[in-house]
Design brief:
Elements lengths: L3 H7 L10 E8 L2 E5 L9 E5 L5 E10 L2 E6 L11 E6 L3 E4 L7 E3 L16 E4 L16 E2 L4 H6 L2 E2 L3 E6 L5 H11 L4 E9 L1 H17 L2 E7 L4 H20 L3 E7 L1 H14 L11 H11 L3 E2 L5 E9 L8 H9 L2 E4 L2 H5 L12 E2 L8 H26 L8 H17 L9 H13 L24
Parallel strand pairs: 8-14, 12-17, 12-18, 13-14, 13-15, 15-17
Antiparallel strand pairs: 1-2, 1-6, 2-5, 3-4, 3-6, 4-5, 7-9, 10-11, 16-17, 18-19
Length: 462
């Protein structure tokens, strides 16, 4: 049984003996202007009191003309000139312990799932910790079975690898993340829902993730209606939680949906703080924060791993838009979800020809690489000729490679589709692919020959 007196005494060191405060002198949009906070630094946390005696947390985002610029983690109604602002901490941290598993929390680490408070105590983790030094990173580990056939075989994910999922809206991204969270061979999942629609949060938790997935997951939520600082905070909190479990020796799977909304939140913060807009309105801090966040995932010497899956929303299918281009250059591969496949009822809508895992071919055996290369070649051949085949303009026997691709196409299409409730093992996937490709395609007659007679002999007259 937990001793409440002992718990209280352990937290006495966190109680401040004195409080420094300043005063609000102006409010402009999402920025609160204060004076008298000379002991703060960029990133410092402050507590703002409203005229209704309510309180909320804010962060220092800049300085201008002798004033401190704050952005809030909550709505700023009730704030006016003269309101007090107290300094809380220079280095924001979150205390993490194993009781976070199975819980849904907000960007500040507070539970929002109605299951009561999270156990006090734990290890303090910096929200904006530095990535592991290059010399401390060990090579990525063995393949991680994610339970999805198309990924296990064609785009394998290794322990400590970081992959991006690039897609538009409504093509099955959340369903795919839920499948991976439920079926992946990871010990702990940390899932950040950054800027998500409020309606879809519980749908994802109950329908896509389910009880099985939630049992080994920590879900960090910041909905789209929350201030940009809270949306950005959810990503940092999730990464800090993942680092805690990595340092405890766990094989952790970190999933973030989505990096694009994190970048949009950082853009709002930067513009409010006076940064100039650059490419498509994104501020320079966006492209400096992205690697600082994403590089924290991966391997670390003598500890566990953080295997990262980060979704990127591509506007109009443009894979070269600024955020997508920057993220693709940081990560170790990308998975492309295709709207055309989704419209055909092909789920998960993974385009295996546009997707790349930089762990291949080193992570596979020679036999596995041979199977995948052969299947890709048949799939690509059919894709190149698909329009002519569907129009009936291709004549059977014109090209033996195309004929072979047509023969295998339906079997490969069925192999690449999977129901959300269906789990597929890695060995089972390779065995099924070998069985498909082991079936010999029938010989086709040469162009202009009658396939009812042998090709080398003419019928004899009586």
């Amino acid at each position: 049984m937990v001793d409440p007196f002992k718990t209280a005494t352990e937290h006495l060191e966190d109680v401040a003996l004195s409080r420094t405060f300043g005063k609000v002198v102006g409010v402009s949009g999402l920025v609160i202007q204060c004076e008298g906070l000379d002991d703060t630094a960029i990133g410092s946390r402050c507590l703002v009191q409203t005229r209704q005696n309510d309180e909320f947390t804010a962060e220092v985002v800049g300085y201008k003309d002798g004033q401190v610029l704050l952005m809030p983690f909550a709505p700023i109604e009730g704030v006016g000139p003269g309101c007090r602002v107290y300094t809380l901490s220079d280095q924001p941290v979150i205390k993490v312990n194993n009781s976070f598993i199975g819980r849904v929390i907000d960007g500040l680490g507070n539970p929002i799932d109605g299951k009561g408070p999270i156990a006090l105590g734990g290890e303090s983790r910096q929200l904006k910790a530095a990535p592991p030094a290059p010399g401390m990173r060990k090579p990525i580990g063995k393949k991680l079975d994610v339970g999805v056939r198309a990924l296990n075989t064609f785009i394998p994910l290794c322990r400590g690898q970081r992959m991006g999922i690039f897609s538009g809206s409504g093509v099955g991204k959340s369903t795919l993340l839920g499948m991976i969270a439920k079926f992946a061979d990871a010990e702990v999942n940390v899932i950040a829902l950054t800027g998500e629609r409020g309606r879809e949060v519980m749908e994802f938790i109950h329908n896509s993730l389910g009880e099985e997935g939630l049992r080994k997951s920590v879900v960090v939520v910041a909905t789209g209606d929350e201030p940009p600082l809270m949306r950005r905070q959810a990503a940092f909190t999730a990464m800090a939680v993942a680092e805690y479990f990595r340092d405890c020796g766990f094989q952790c799977l970190m999933m973030m949906d989505s990096v694009t909304r994190f970048a949009m939140a950082q853009r709002e913060i930067g513009l409010s703080a006076g940064e100039p807009p650059t490419t498509r309105g994104y501020t320079p801090s966006v492209f400096s924060e992205l690697p600082r966040l994403l590089e924290r995932a991966g391997t670390c010497e003598g500890k566990g791993t953080i295997t990262g899956l980060f979704t990127v929303l591509v506007e109009g299918g443009d894979l070269d838009e600024p955020v997508a281009d920057a993220v693709r250059g940081i990560l170790d591969g990308h998975i492309v979800l295709d709207r055309a496949l989704a419209e055909q009822g092909h789920f998960p809508s993974i385009n295996i020809l546009k997707s790349v895992s930089r762990a291949m071919p080193q992570c596979n055996t020679a036999e596995e690489n041979k199977l995948v290369t052969m299947a890709r070649r048949h799939y690509a051949t059919f894709d190149n000729m698909a329009e002519l085949i569907r129009l009936g303009a291709y004549k059977k026997g014109s090209d033996s490679d195309v004929d072979t691709a047509i023969f295998y196409h339906d079997s490969l299409e069925k192999f690449l589709t999977q129901e959300p409730e269906e789990s597929a093992s890695m060995d089972g996937g390779y065995n099924a692919l070998a069985e498909i490709l082991g079936e010999e395609a029938p010989a086709t007659p040469a162009d202009g020959q009658d396939d009812t007679q042998p090709n080398d002999k003419a019928p004899q007259e009586a």
